[in-house]
Specification:
heterodimer; A: alpha+beta; five-stranded antiparallel sheet; 19 helices; 23% strand; B: mainly alpha; 4 helices
């Protein structure tokens, strides 16, 4: 009994030591476990590199649409097919199967399979359909890599506006280049675990934003087909057509010839074909600028619509003599007559009356010599020498008044003339209607570039431009039922040793309906051979285009339009 | 001396003492087995879900790629030259200005303002939760979790 009590006493005395010992050991194990699991993830990751794969997930590039939701640029997949010869168990059968699907010579595939190399590329790029058929073979030796590809389902349509996406998946030129960061989205680094207990984490990279352009696919096609036809008919070397909405600055179509296919952008003979001549090609705009000169002079009050001068056919300024296009004297001519007869002497008379300060001040307000700020990559600012510049001479004031001795892009010219169409308010040209980022829609901001002339001056010049089309062009640009305003330009092409005598750039800028302009068009042809003057060559192209535009844009004839407007209706599909 | 202490500590106990220790140990083992089984069931469930998710993601990605390819194909098939050719085949001709007749309907506004939805008064939220209700909700939630947990651990 005594012995049992002693044993119990000893047990009770030792039990706490045993319990404490076990707790200590358990605690040490537990702490070690916690530190391993939670406190040292870097160590854990280092130890488990075999179980984790780091992959870079490229974001899907945003889609580009026209203003009506037609897809202009989409993403597709292509497949790269390779093979590891040492993993092939039946070379003969494999070669037969692959050659049939990949449309390759069976003998060459067989030779590739029997080569000593560890991996052989069989097809660098095949379509998704072919890739799927190869996948279905479930051949262990075949490697199939998916290659993202930018596809332009409309082919060459608006290629210079779109730009292209290079092999590095980066956008170049046009919208693709300008909106690279928005379209590309953000790639994500992702760690993929092979441990089955690890739930897959979010694997979707941030998708790029979708962009809706102001371009109207049908008008763009019209511009491109007319340009292509005109180049073929006139033998021109190149050309540009821009269609804009003068009230908003929205570019509805922008076409240049020659164009390229963005699906095969490497096939161009010269990489300069990738650029967009409508925004980067500078030329001497010629007589189109006379409307700017007259508008500027009217606005500052140097002349009035009733003002007249005695045209003697020649004027001398800054040491050079300037003649009219027909080298004739026209006698007493009023302001409208300067534009209707496109008289160089009249334009020079007006600009010299204004003086360099007023004239170049207005030219700057009309945006010459600076970027319009259009949201496209590669815009040029043009060249306009002003007093104080090393290359400026007194004769520039004269030659600039009728669009020679200066350089502008087609976009600058149409933007400046659109101020006349839009009651004196010059809108910044814009190519993007809205950007859609997930659920967020960011509409484009219409930005006024300024008001170079008053609304009253704009209306006066507009009427003069109507007179140009009505009286000066023999109805070459007229459209029955519609009042059209416009001005031609036939400009000489400068060389380092003077102007060429055998070739010209011919252009026309016109808008309609003149009293409520819905559309303004610039047509420019480089070195056409079918005529000497723009009134003969380019004005008829405008008329042909206008015939289609009023249908596509739902612009009714003037009498119907006025009746519709009288009861509160709006006209033109581009206003919606 | 130390050997003597260990021998003394480990020498045979009375049956009652050994039974207590064994019972305690067995209880610990049973608890450990239950916890392990629950953990294993949970881990297996997570792993299965993970695999299913991965497979679904793969299928979804393939479907998205297929859809994107189809959209590109549709856009190609609806390109202007192709539509023009197809319309021409079907006997359509391009509408000319003179083919279109605009009608002015007196009193009709072609661009009426968009209809505004009727103003609906938002229902005001009723705050009628009580502590006992909240407690019941929590108990129900725990109960449903346990039921699904037991269900997931089954064969």
């Amino acid at each position: 009994m005594q012995s049992a009590l002693n044993q119990q006493e000893i047990f009770n005395r030792r039990l706490p030591f045993v319990i404490i010992g076990m707790i200590v050991v358990s605690a040490v194990l537990l702490l070690q476990l916690i530190s391993f699991q939670q406190l040292a993830p870097d160590v854990l990751n280092e130890l488990s590199t075999d179980y984790n794969r780091n992959i870079k997930l490229a974001a899907a590039r945003g889609t580009i649409y026209d203003r009506n939701g037609h897809r202009l640029a989409v993403n597709t997949l292509e497949y790269r097919i390779g093979i590891s010869p040492n993993l092939v168990s039946n070379p003969q059968r494999t070669a037969t199967q692959l050659a049939a699907i990949l449309n390759l010579d069976e003998l060459k595939v067989y030779e590739a399979i029997n080569s000593q190399r560890p991996w052989v590329l069989l097809a660098p790029r095949v379509s998704a359909d072919v890739g799927h058929r190869v996948e279905e073979l479930k051949l262990l030796a075949v490697t199939i890599d998916k290659l993202p590809r930018r596809s332009y389902p409309q082919g060459t349509l608006a290629s210079q506006v779109m730009g292209f996406v290079g092999g590095d998946l980066r956008g170049y030129y046009g919208v693709e280049g300008y909106y690279q960061s928005q379209l590309a989205g953000k790639p994500r680094d992702e760690v993929i675990s092979s441990i089955p207990f690890d739930l897959p984490s979010r694997q979707e990279p941030d998708r790029g934003s979708d962009i809706y352009l102001t371009i109207d696919r049908d008008l763009q096609y019209l511009a491109e087909s007319e340009l292509s036809l005109s180049v073929a008919e006139t033998g021109a070397k190149a050309g540009t057509i821009i269609i804009m909405h003068p009230r908003t600055g929205d570019v509805l179509a922008m076409a240049s010839w020659p164009a390229f296919d963005p699906n095969a952008y490497t096939d161009v003979a010269n990489p300069r074909e990738w650029s967009n001549p409508a925004i980067s090609g500078q030329y001497e705009p010629g007589s189109v600028i006379k409307v700017i000169t007259v508008a500027a002079a009217l606005d500052v009050g140097v002349i009035t619509p009733q003002w007249t001068y005695n045209d003697q056919g020649r004027i001398e300024v800054g040491g050079i003599g300037i003649e009219n296009w027909d080298r004739r004297a026209h006698g007493l001519v009023d302001t409208t007559g300067i534009l209707v007869q496109s008289l160089n002497v009249g334009a020079v008379t007006v600009s010299t009356m204004m003086g360099p300060s007023l004239f170049y001040g207005k030219m700057a307000q009309f945006g010459f010599g600076r970027l319009t700020g259009i949201n496209l990559e590669g815009e040029a600012a043009g060249t306009l020498y002003v007093p104080g510049d090393p290359d400026y001479s007194d004769s520039n004031l004269a030659t600039n008044s009728f669009g020679q001795g200066m350089a502008a892009t087609p976009l600058q010219v149409i933007t400046a003339v659109s101020a006349i169409a839009n009651d004196g308010l010059m809108m910044q040209p814009n190519i993007v209607q809205k950007i859609v980022d997930g659920d967020q829609v960011i509409p484009a901001q219409r930005v006024p570039l300024g008001r170079p002339i008053s609304a009253e001056t704009a209306r006066l010049v507009r009427d003069m431009m109507v007179a140009v089309v009505r009286d000066g062009l023999d109805d070459a640009a007229s459209l029955p039922g519609y009042t059209v305003a416009g001005k031609t330009g036939t400009s000489e092409i400068p060389t380092p040793v003077g102007y060429r005598r055998d070739a010209w750039i011919m252009s026309f800028v016109g808008f309609l309906p003149a009293d409520d302009p819905q559309v303004i068009v610039l047509i420019k042809l480089d070195e056409p051979k079918s005529g000497r003057w723009a009134s003969q060559v380019v004005a008829p192209i405008f008329r042909r285009m206008a015939e289609r535009m009023v249908v596509l844009m739902e612009i009714p004839p003037d009498d119907v339009r006025r009746a519709l407007q009288a009861q509160g209706g709006r006209i033109g599909s581009m206003n919606r | 001396m130390a050997q003597e202490w260990v021998r003394h500590a480990l020498r045979s106990r009375t049956w009652r003492m050994q039974r207590q220790a064994v019972a305690l140990g067995a209880l610990g083992v049973v608890l450990a087995i239950i916890i392990s089984a629950l953990y294993l069931a949970q881990a297996a469930s997570v792993a299965t879900l993970g695999r299913q998710l991965e497979n679904l993601i793969v299928v979804r990605n393939q479907l998205e790629q297929t859809n994107e390819g189809l959209r590109a194909e549709i856009a190609q098939l609806r390109s202007v030259p192709r539509l023009l050719a197809r319309a021409h085949e079907l006997g359509f001709v391009i509408a000319r200005r003179e083919n279109i007749e605009y009608l002015v309907v007196s009193g009709y506004n072609p661009n009426p303002p968009p209809p505004q939805p009727p103003a609906v008064e938002k229902p005001r939220p009723v705050y009628d939760e009580s502590f006992t209700g909240w407690l019941r909700q929590q108990l129900d939630w725990f109960s449903s979790q346990f039921q699904s947990f037991v269900g997931a651990g089954g064969p």
